[in-house]
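FIELD: query
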Amino acid sequence: MVDQATRSLRQNSLNRICHEQSPKVLITGIGTGLDIPMLDERSHYIGLDITPAMLKKADQRAQQRPELDLKLQLADAMALPFENNHFDVVLMHLILAIVPNSLRALQEAERVLKPGGQLLIVDKFLKRGQWAVGRRTLNMIIRHIATKTNVVFEDLLDHCQSLSVVMDEPALANGWFRSIEITKSNHTE
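FIELD: result
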């Protein structure tokens, strides 16, 4: 169900990657590997997830794409096991609203992204100042079993000084889901 509802959204995000230089791409929260069928074979990928069962399903999808340079790894999006400035691209498709600490996950993506690199995000976010009483009420229940429905992306971004928004478009459900492209500056303060 998630695959069908978000496939075009995720494909549009993946289409923003320039594969001419064979970038190193981190897929944070690869889950069951819904993006794997759409990955371009010119890039080098590391897909990580904190759940072994998810990685097992992702591995099954990866076996259908033997031409891909894809390594799967058990890891936590809030404590990435990579050096600073390691990846050309970081994908965060449908992960920021799931992890317990969305800010920490975004800061870790910022840390491992090379200066000038791309951070591509697809997720559901409230807009700053948006009341969204129904979504905020739903969050009290659903956040414990599936996903948060009250994450304000701009509040997270305020704590990531080297990240700048290149593109932020409403994508699904009257703009609740957004497609965001970010770049990392060449210097940090």
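FIELD: remark
The longest helix spans residues 2-14.
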